[in-house]
């Protein structure tokens, strides 16, 4: 072989290992989330389950739903690497209908949701949304969540999306707190009776603009509005969990299948599964609940202090669960926060969840929570928690993988720059 042929052969092997690495990591995450959910093996189906089958979806158990990891043996077939590239360069369409939507109504809705989360909803502009956290009394994270202030024909309200694997416990948590709250607030659960799709990638706006009258160029990341998409009433938010520009589209049950088919018929769109979604969120340095964050992790440890609105940090602000500990850590991170979520670039085999992180001298200082070969960067990337002061970027550490001690360097995240859209 020539030098060039050897280089191409090496790159091909790396990409093959990357796809296998992400697939294994995604299946591990799927199984772990399912174990934390209901014990039944009768998997739930989203409204477009049959579409996944027609398109060659390779379905796995994810949070008790039959969800596609990737698509095979059809005109829509792509490897996880190809699907990741599709979202980076054009657009991918994800079925995220397994996630649960809530609508909070009543004059005390803002007060109640603020009493459970860290977001300043009172001063959130109408039509704006933000990532937030549902916290417990110990300052841990019950779930990460998207919260948007919006309106419909029933009036102003709060729209919230929670993770599928956490939804049963989240809803039980809210119901318990509602019983003690006593104000004018109701929780409306919208889950398996509607479609929720994430159209992600640099071509997402161009594709969606064909079917709406609103000027999407004026809509920034985090903005949301009610729109008519190809004649179907939808709630559209410019957001997503891939690091790319994109939209999440809430559509009524009867229109879910035709909307999915319409968007997938666009030349620049391909259906995408859990494999690409996990690769993209890892490259973007985003957390996967139950792995990178859980009910023992605080916002400061997770690098999510930015979700705690400044107004909620004031002494006169409405209290939220765990606020004393969370605010103390924000005020004095050097003394109150002992570990931090970091990015790492390990050598050797991919360092996945549970791999031990050590110093060069052999002292254990952390653990990996997510990891795989990056399809975009073509090298290993991982997230994990590392004790201070070993969390500083550039720190050389060691990760234990399959009995081997592989070098790893602490790296700032995101690993791949994000492309969230801001109007000119």
Structural notes for this entry:
The protein is of the alpha+beta class. It has 11 helices and 19 strands. The protein has a 6-stranded mixed β-sheet. A 6-stranded antiparallel barrel has the order 14-17-16-15-18-19. A 5-stranded antiparallel β-sheet has the order 5-6-7-4-8. A hairpin with a 5-residue loop joins strand 5 (129-135) and strand 6 (141-152). Helix 1 (3-36) crosses helix 8 (274-283) and helix 3 (80-89) crosses helix 8 (274-283). The chain is globular and about 65 Å long. The model is unreliable at 31-40 (pLDDT under 50).
Keywords:
424 residues; alpha+beta; six-stranded mixed beta sheet; 27% helix; 30% strand; globular
Which helices and strands, and how do they pair?
Blueprint (H helix, E strand, L loop, with lengths): L2 H34 L12 H6 L2 E6 L2 E7 L8 H10 L1 E5 L4 E6 L3 H6 L14 E7 L5 E12 L2 E8 L4 H15 L4 E5 L3 E7 L3 H6 L14 E6 L2 E6 L8 E7 H12 L4 E4 L1 H10 L15 H4 L20 H9 L1 H4 L2 E8 L9 E3 L5 E10 L6 E8 L8 E6 L2 E8 L13
Parallel strand pairs: 3-13
Antiparallel strand pairs: 1-2, 3-9, 4-7, 4-8, 5-6, 6-7, 9-12, 10-11, 11-12, 14-17, 14-19, 15-16, 15-18, 16-17, 18-19
The number of E-state strands comes to: 19
**Separation of termini?**
51 Å
Structural class, from secondary structure content?
A: alpha+beta
Contiguous runs where pLDDT drops below 50 for at least 5 residues: 31-40
One letter per element, helices H and strands E, the order comes to HHEEHEEHEEEHEEHEEEHEHHHHEEEEEE
On the 0-100 scale, what is the average pLDDT?
93
- Strand order within the widest sheet? 10-11-12-9-3-13
- What amount of the residues lies in strands? 25-35%
Largest sheet: 6 strands, mixed
Spatial shape: globular
**What is the radius of gyration computed over CA atoms, rounded to a whole number of angstroms?**
22 Å
For this structure, the quaternary state is single chain
* Helix count from the secondary structure assignment: 11
Please bin the fraction of helical residues: 25-40%
């Amino acid at each position: 072989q020539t030098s060039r042929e050897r280089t191409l052969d090496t790159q091909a092997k790396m990409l093959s290992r990357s796809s296998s690495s992400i697939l294994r990591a995604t299946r591990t995450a799927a199984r772990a989330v399912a174990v934390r959910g209901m014990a039944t093996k009768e998997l739930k189906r989203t409204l477009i389950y049959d579409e996944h089958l027609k398109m060659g979806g390779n379905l796995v158990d994810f949070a008790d739903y039959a969800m596609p990891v990737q698509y095979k043996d059809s005109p829509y077939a792509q490897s996880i690497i190809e699907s990741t590239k599709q979202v980076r360069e054009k657009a991918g369409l994800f079925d995220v209908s397994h996630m649960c939507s809530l609508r909070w109504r009543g004059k005390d809705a803002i007060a109640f949701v603020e009493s459970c989360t860290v977001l300043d909803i009172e001063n959130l502009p109408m039509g704006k949304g933000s990532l937030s956290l549902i916290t417990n009394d110990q300052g841990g994270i019950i779930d990460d969540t998207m919260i948007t202030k919006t309106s419909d024909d029933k009036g102003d309200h709060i729209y919230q999306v929670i993770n599928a694997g956490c939804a049963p416990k989240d809803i039980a948590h809210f119901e318990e707190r509602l019983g003690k709250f006593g104000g004018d607030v109701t929780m409306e659960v919208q889950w398996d009776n509607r479609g929720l799709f994430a159209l992600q990638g640099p071509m997402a706006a161009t594709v969606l603009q064909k079917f709406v009258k609103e000027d999407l160029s004026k809509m920034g990341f985090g903005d949301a509005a009610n729109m008519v998409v190809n004649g179907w009433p939808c709630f559209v938010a410019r957001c997503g969990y891939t690091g790319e520009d994109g939209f999440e589209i809430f559509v009524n049950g009867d229109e879910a299948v035709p909307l999915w088919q319409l968007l997938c018929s666009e030349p620049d769109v391909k259906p995408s599964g859990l494999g690409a979604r996990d690769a993209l969120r890892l490259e973007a340095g985003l957390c996967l609940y139950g792995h990178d964050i859980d009910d023992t992790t605080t916002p400061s440890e997770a690098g999510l202090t930015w979700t705690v609105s400044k107004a909620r940090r004031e002494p006169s602000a409405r209290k939220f669960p765990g606020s004393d500990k969370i605010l103390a850590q924000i005020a004095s991170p050097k003394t109150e926060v002992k570990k931090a979520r970091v990015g790492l670039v390990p050598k050797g085999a991919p360092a996945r969840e549970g791999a031990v992180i050590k110093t060069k001298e052999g002292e254990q200082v952390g653990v990996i929570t997510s990891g795989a070969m990056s399809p975009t960067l073509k090298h290993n990337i991982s997230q994990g928690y590392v004790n201070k002061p070993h969390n500083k970027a550039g720190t050389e550490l060691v990760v234990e993988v399959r009995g081997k001690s592989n070098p790893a360097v602490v790296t700032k995240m995101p690993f791949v720059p994000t492309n969230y859209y801001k109007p000119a």
